[in-house]
Amino acid sequence: MNNIVLANIFRFLGLILLQGLVFKNVGEGWKEFPYLFVIIYPLAIMLLPLRTPRVLTIVLGFVAGLMVDGFYTSPGIHASAAVFMAFCRPFVLKALEPRNGYNVNYSPTAARWGIRWFLQYAAIMLTLYLLFYFSVEAFTFVYLGSILLKTVVSLITSMIFIVIYQVIFNPVD
Amino acid sequence: MFRIFELFLRLSGFFVFLLLEIICFILIVKYNHQQQVIYENSTNLFSAYLQKKSKSFADYMHLTEVNDSLSKENAFLLSELANMPKGAGGGIDSSRLNQLDTTFQVIPARVISNSVNRYHNFIVLDKGSRHGVVPHTGVVTANGVVGIVRRVAPSSSVAMSVLHLQTRISARVRNKGYFGWINWTGKNTRSFKLNDVPKDALVALGDTIETSGYSAIFPEGIMLGTIEKIGLEPGSNYYSLDVKYSTDLSRLSWAYIVKDLRQREKLELLDQVISDDE
Fold first, then answer.
1. What one-character DSSP code corresponds to residue B85?
2. What is the residue range of B19's domain?
3. Which domain holds residue A128?
4. Which of A123, A56, A58 is nearest to A88 (CA)?
5. Is residue B222 domain-resident?
6. Hey, which of A144, B22, B85, B228 would disulfide with B96, CB 3.0 to 4.6 Å?
7. Chains A, B: CB contacts under 8 A, how many?
8. Which of B117, B119, B251 sits opposite A27 (nearest CB)?
């Protein structure tokens, strides 16, 4: 029990630091192609145990987003996207529910439900996050084309890093 | 009563979601309209301290490039020195130095944080009010204009990058005198547009665009870019001029803050004239 909580706290802080200090710099060197971003910290929200209360998930999303915003000097933008993603989490989980249901004591990880299931789950959640994030960042739908392009390109690169994270840590809970 | 409570509990996730989104949007709108307030806070944040540390490491990795550009700048400064008024003995005649126009004071600064991939980019510099930086001063490098200081903390300051959709810089075509203003298109870091140049102006591809000095922020004659494409929009009296920007903002480590010592004097005079007219 305590192990799960501790693991989640470490993952939460670790992913935020990784995002703010390392992955923030990816993409800033691509001057001719400003569409590539690597966003992996939502993994901290995605991997929360299944029995985490809904409200707590959303509040944690808000906290994580605000902390990342501290690094990106963009108050509210990451936070709003993370809150949105956390809100959608139960619906995504419901849509992907295996035939014999979930064991609520587990976390939604690749080790528990298979890599295929996890990739689907992570891709949907990240798409929701990125779409919301880039829309809010532009704050208008005038740049719809570039918002979609940013979402697709960033989704692909971010998923690569999420898979690498899975391969290195392979978290069970 | 219990039913209402039950309903509330069932929808609590949704309410928390709504509440937090509203908070986020208040933050975002505030940030869009008064970056100053937010940035004053964010320069003091713990994350700024961490970024400073991570930046000092990154600086170390880029030492060769930085050295290269510093030596180029040194060369430029030496050539400037050569143009100083000379005395009879060949040395610089300091008695005539006073007659030079010392309107501008230059403060070198290190770039702590910089972004180029958003629509509203900002640059954090390590010099602040303690070093004499004031808001509305220009930030330049040897290659050209970088941004405008918006908010100053004691030992750091935040500049609005030229890569910000709301930044406008008064510009002119070198040696030809046609003037207008330049802004970022939001596409890539090198693509800018020069506006308000009338269609009867004689501009050519490759013409150099420089600061006009009309805005009391930048001295005149600082390189901005070159004309890349000349377009004519039907129904408009002005050219649509695509400009290739001279400075690569994605590789910025050092910059100079240029302080116009007569800025207040100029602006006050202008205000006076405008209020006299009304």
1. P
2. 2-33
3. 2-169
4. A58
5. no
6. B85
7. 114
8. B117
Residue B112 — left, alpha, or beta (φ > 0 → left; ψ -120 to 50 → alpha)? alpha
User: Which is nearest to B190 in space by CA: A33, A142, A150?
Assistant: A33
ipTM score of complex: 0.75
Q: Is residue B6 part of a domain?
A: yes
Distances (CA, A) of A54 to A63, A78, A101, B24: 14, 19, 18, 19
Instruction: For residue B15, tell me if it sits in a domain.
Output: yes
Residue B45, chain A, CB below 8 Å: the answer is: yes
Report how far residue B209's alpha carbon sits from residue B190's, in angstroms, rounded to the nearest whole number: 14
8 Å CB contact between B241 and B197: yes
**A108 at interface of B, judged by CB pairs closer than 8 A:** no
Q: Is position B270 within any domain?
A: no
3-state secondary structure of B264: helix
Amino acid, single-letter form, for residue B172: R
Q: What is the mean pLDDT of each successive set of 10 residues along chain B, which is 278 residues long?
A: 68 84 81 51 61 74 75 68 54 52 74 82 86 88 87 86 88 87 86 88 88 80 88 83 88 82 78 80
A58 and A83 Cβ atoms separated by less than 8 Å = yes
**What tens digit of pLDDT does each residue of A100-152 get?**
888 888 888 888 888 889 999 999 999 999 999 988 887 667 778 888 888 99
Question: Coil, strand or helix: which one is B164?
Answer: strand
Domain count, chain A: 1
Q: Do B188 and A138 touch (CB under 8 A)?
A: no
A106 touches chain B (CB under 8 A): no
SS (HEC) of B93-123: CHHHHCCCCCCEEEEEEEEEEECCCCCEEEE
Please enumerate in sequence order all residues whose Cβ is within 8 A of that of A121, keeping only pairs 6 or more positions apart, or say none: A46, A92, A93, A96, A108, A113
The pTM of the full predicted model, rounded to 2 decimals, is 0.59
What domain count does chain B have? 1
